[in-house]
TrEMBL record:
Keyword flag rRNA-binding: no
Protein name: Acetate kinase
Species the sequence originates in: Amaricoccus macauensis
Entry binding sites for ATP: 17, 208-212, 283-285, 328-332
Function: Catalyzes the formation of acetyl phosphate from acetate and ATP. Can also catalyze the reverse reaction.
Residues carrying the site annotation Transition state stabilizer: 181, 241
Sequence positions that bind substrate: 93
Reactions the enzyme catalyzes: acetate + ATP = acetyl phosphate + ADP
Catalytic EC class: transferase
Example GO biological process: acetyl-CoA biosynthetic process
Length: 412
């Protein structure tokens, strides 16, 4: 008897994150890992839930120069570790679903064409998501490919919060504030509904603070506004992205400095944010540890923008019942949470320093009118649940790897 498995893929510019689940019943995670430095000196890291040793190994750069090569390395590992298992569905994290996709969807040739058409909407992310899907289709022609969108959760936003003040034709053509990190917001608001249902039913701001960062106003479990806009460049400053910027700065760079448009794009996406301000690193742990004036200034800019957005989003919600921190920085940095909350007493936030230092579930005092929580996010489980349910709704046959596609001989 074979075990049906679901593979979850998150394809980035030089990385392929994966998670593997047994989906015979409720999804059970079996492994998770990453192939990083694709196209450079690739390396595979994976951890297993069962009593299998963790893996960290360098890969041959000739074999792993693209997502297909990276997926080959992942499959080699999976086949070796779970010889009786069969991957029946692959769930993909896709950054942009445009105005069309408000829910996960089975990837057909038409869907893939639409995702490709959306590349200009998220030029730094979407091409890699599409190539991840193509690599998985080639590796598993019989598995159900499912796309899950970072924009989908925000499709509930009212017009006044998802439009720009442009002639209306632009809105009709899809130039809107989409919002991203929706898979994380879906998971966190679901968790909040489970652990604190009364707060979740009210007015909630979620701060997803990872290498990418955004915030979302959630009312009764539905997104009503977010800090990101047309692309994942807007809103908060991030590891390497500038976040909110006056478009006039971009005109100035193009017209006065005569910088090529690609250069400006590279600057705003990959050389700005915490990295640009500090001149040191995009990584918050490194900045916190460094203690240089530049690192501290970058952190001060970062926390000031987050605090500002708490106020803006609370105004949109007409008040605040809970603030939730999530993702790498939100879950793990007492300093960032404390700096953000430092001047938010007026809104009803009274942080408990000890609870904050311990990254407890609730980090406010018992008397604090607004509850501040730390909720670890899990975007992969949202994807696997969607893939499993679409797979079960369709042909539930547990198909084997096609014999000619076994990758055990692949040298990686
Ligand atoms: P993510 O994209 O969610 O994996 O988050 C990555 C970010 O989280 C990086 O900037 C890390 O430095 C940051 N991070 C992870 N752990 C910590 C920690 N203990 N303190 C501060 N930042 C952290």
């Amino acid at each position: 008897m074979t075990t049906p498995l679901a593979l979850v893929l998150n394809a980035g510019s030089s990385s392929l994150k994966f998670a593997l689940y047994d989906i015979a019943a409720a999804p059970v995670e079996r492994a998770r890992g990453i192939v990083e430095r694709i196209g450079g000196a690739p390396r595979l890291k994976a951890a297993f839930r069962a009593d299998l040793p963790s893996v960290a190994r360098d890969l041959a750069s000739e074999a792993v120069h693209d997502h297909a090569g990276a997926l080959g390395a992942v499959l080699f590992l999976i086949e070796a570790s779970f010889p009786d298992a069969r991957i029946v569905t692959v769930g993909h994290r896709v950054v942009h679903g445009g105005t069309t996709y408000a829910a996960p969807i089975v990837v057909t040739p038409e869907v893939l064409a639409e995702l490709t058409r959306l590349i200009p909407f998220a030029p730094i992310h979407q091409p890699h998501n599409v190539s991840g899907i193509e690599a998985a289709q080639a590796a598993f022609p019989d598995a159900l490919q499912v796309a899950c969108f970072d924009t989908a959760f925000h499709r509930t936003q009212p017009w006044v919060n998802d439009t720009y003040a442009l002639p209306p034709d632009y809105y009709a053509r899809g130039v809107r504030r989409y919002g991203f990190h929706g898979l994380s917001y879906e998971y966190v608001s679901g968790e909040l509904a489970r652990i604190a249902p009364e707060r979740a039913a009210g007015r909630v701001v979620i701060a997803h603070l990872g290498n990418g960062a955004s915030m979302c106003a959630v009312e009764g479990g539905r997104s009503i506004s977010s800090t990101m806009g047309f692309t994942p460049l807007d809103g908060l400053p991030m590891g390497t992205r500038c976040g909110q910027i006056d478009p006039g700065v971009i005109f100035y760079m193009l017209a006065e400095e005569e910088r090529p448009i690609d250069d400006v794009q590279t600057l705003l996406y990959t050389e700005s944010g915490l990295l640009g301000l500090s001149g040191l690193s995009n990584d918050m742990r490194t900045l916190e540890a460094s203690g240089t004036a530049e690192a501290d200034a970058a952190i001060a800019y970062y926390t000031a923008r987050i605090r500002e957005q708490v106020g803006r989003l609370a105004a949109t919600l007409g008040g605040l019942d809970a603030l939730v921190f999530t993702a790498g920085i939100g879950e793990n940095s007492p300093r960032i949470r404390a700096e953000v909350c430092e001047r938010l007493g007026w809104i009803g936030i009274e942080l408990d320093p000890e609870r904050n230092a311990a990254s407890a579930e609730v980090i406010t005092t018992s008397a604090s009118p607004v509850e501040v929580r730390v909720v670890p996010t899990d975007e992969e489980i949202v994807i696997v649940r969607a893939a499993k349910s679409l797979w079960e709704a369709g042909d539930a046959a547990c198909r084997p790897f096609p014999p000619d596609r076994r990758l055990s001989d692949t040298k990686v």
